[in-house]
């Protein structure tokens, strides 16, 4: 098969040196604790296999994913680091967990029993990390609801055949919030987690590994191995590894370098007379003669309609406004008065010379967070992996390069 050439249409540039830099900064912030690098959701849209490779080179202790498919993808790519599945896996897949040496979250006694039965039938043992619900209200043994009952269920799960408990973890729900009541809530979550660890230890089931700090926890509470044996502690950062802060007010607390930039190119330029409608719905009409450039990016690429008449892009080092409705595959920019040409690169977010358009600005327009913006960049957008300004790899989800 002929190699698919790279088409300048829409693409995301992933800066591997920025990724490496962020890992080192986070490692230092965590007091040199081992890091479990979260690479779920295709490394937040950045390309899980490639990002995991960098994290492994930098000394990551573990990788964390959301589901079995993500874990198997890493194993098939040759990744040998321990992998933890943070979410749900059907017990019927116990054999795949054993075969691929993948650790899974154990979050209820009912799930543990089903997983135990499947592991015994598969003739092996599934490694589990107990998931403590200290106040997230999601999956996990409900310590906040009934601490003693939750500990009894954890201990019963640990005693089941076919399971081997090797860790304990939890997730903060408001660690990125400065409201006094939420600061107190996060402290309560941590205290409850520490109490659970010591209860398991007293019962003869001391976890070999404990991890509670997500990105916000690493940034705000790097001292929170406190109350736990440091030699058993690990930090579990996610979004900060990709150069983005968990909350806008936390920007600048840790020197981070955004890893992803989203680019497109000018496909056509038109000079439109006054009172000319642009795009679907006629929600924008030129009040006077305007020059409009079309770029081939739309909501099927992960650039949503809500950005119509709101967002800017960077073109020739200047901000230009999106005008008219964002279409499935295209949108239009007002480039009046600028020296622009067809085939010029437009930056959706990222840098263009000295100009910078942060992904958080798009998130504000969308009424969401930076996590969602980068995660929803669609699979028809190729990722170009860049090192020292040179493209060193390409990920095309539709046609293999």
Reconstruct the topology from this structure.
Elements: E1 10-15, H1 16-29, E2 36-38, H2 40-45, H3 48-57, E3 62-65, H4 68-76, E4 83-85, H5 94-99, E5 102-106, H6 109-122, E6 126-133, E7 141-142, H7 147-158, E8 163-169, H8 180-202, E9 210-211, H9 215-220, E10 233-234, E11 260-265, E12 268-272, E13 290-295, E14 312-315, E15 318-323, E16 331-334, E17 345-352, E18 355-357, H10 359-366, H11 370-375, E19 383-387, E20 390-395
Parallel strand pairs: 1-19, 2-3, 3-4, 4-5, 5-6, 6-7, 6-8, 8-9, 9-10
Antiparallel strand pairs: 1-11, 11-17, 12-13, 13-16, 14-15, 14-17, 15-16, 17-18, 19-20
Brief digest:
28% of the residues lie in helices and 24% in strands.
Sheet-strand content, in percent, reads 15-25%
Amino- and carboxy-terminal Cα gap: 10 Å
Query: Total number of β-strand segments?
Result: 20
Count, helices: 11
Structural class from helices and strands? alpha/beta
What about the largest sheet? 11 strands, mixed
Radius of gyration: 24 Å
Instruction: Flag low-confidence runs.
Output: none
pLDDT averaged residue by residue: 95
Binned, the helix content reads 25-40%
The backbone outline, from C-alpha atoms, is elongated
